[in-house]
Amino acid sequence: MNKGKLLIIDDNEDVLFALNLLLKPYMEEIKVTTQPEKIEYFIKLFSPDVILLDMNFKRDAISGQEGFFWLEKIKQLDPAAVVLFITAYADTEKAVKAIKAGATDFIPKPWEKEKLLATLSATFELRESRNEVRNLKQQVAVLSTQEDTSFEIIGESHKMQELFATIEKLRNTDANILVLGENGTGKDLVARALYHHSPRVNKVFVSIDLGSIPEQLFESELFGYEKGAFTDARKDKPGRMEIASGGTLFLDEIGNLSLPMQAKLLTAIEKKQIFRLGSSYPIPIDVRLISATNMPLHSMVTEGNFRQDLLYRINTIELHIPPLRERGNDIFLLADFFLSCFARKYKKEIKGITHEAKNILQKYTWPGNVRELQHAIERAVILSETYMLKPENFVLQSPVLKRNEENEELNLSSLEKDAIERALRRAEGNVTQAAELLGITRYALYRKLDKLNV
Known about the structure:
45% helix; 18 helices; five-stranded parallel sheet; alpha/beta
């Protein structure tokens, strides 16, 4: 029999004792009670896989009305609950009514041991199947909202070959990975590559951009919530960690988490369980974590802005993605790849990039890395009216003039404040555009504006 958690409700203590003694070797855990009023308490705190419910309590010993009353209560608390009626007064009419009301089967008193065990075994399998269907529906709902990444990782440079070799070495591990790199280097692509080369490749991959979640929505997004937990909680909603259980969870922009949110994430990772908002019972989780950030986490630990214990949990292995300016001729491989994609998308007959244009691409420092190159090629394809991309098709940022190093401001807070002010001026006060220029999320920029009093 599949082991699981069983709740037995019967007004006869002798029956409870006998069933507990008989079934204990076959169950993970058993709870018994003579008081059906405690059903809600047991469902919330014990989370039984199967409920064995007496049909007839003291008030009405034959009709089974109390049993049907409590069955309805159970279904309100857990629509997926699997309930077996147990009664000494079973008949065809009651059986049909019970099935229509949501019961799974009947167990007569007195019971036959083998038949009882066979019925329970089938019932636990049913519960497991329902859980699988529910989880699949939740995963499909989340995955349908996630952006598909169509571009693959391309590179022949020495640094990229080293990265590919490391990913291959991690093929058979479930270790938590931390991916570090500047904005636009392709950290999300590396995360998906790690997933596709992992033992969990046939399980779900769920990603969440922690930098884009307002702090007040962090818990509900990551841990989920119960119906009625807050004003707009009209139905139960699983969080990303619950949906990713069994598979891989990609935590992008983890460096943007505030310290209180870091503490809550650490607790979930350490205890391997989460609590939905509005719920008092834990949900076990089993996830492989891949985290990514462009922020200097080790320096942030020293400064007290990132928890050291959380850093230990997420970076069993640490991967560094090189910026595009350090990847040599990879820029031409990527440019040709993007050109092919966008020429097809915009139905343009563009064959390649002129030598003069390639020189411009090679000399440019690409502060936005691969993402900036991708956008530059897309704009060039749209603007081009010839069969080759020319220098005039590329609109790149002007190089920053080198300042006198002796008089250069080196205070990090001052430099950061200056960069934010310049970005806001260039974006004409538009915070979203300014955040894009700075290579951070809008919510991260709001936090910096508050911190620096800009």
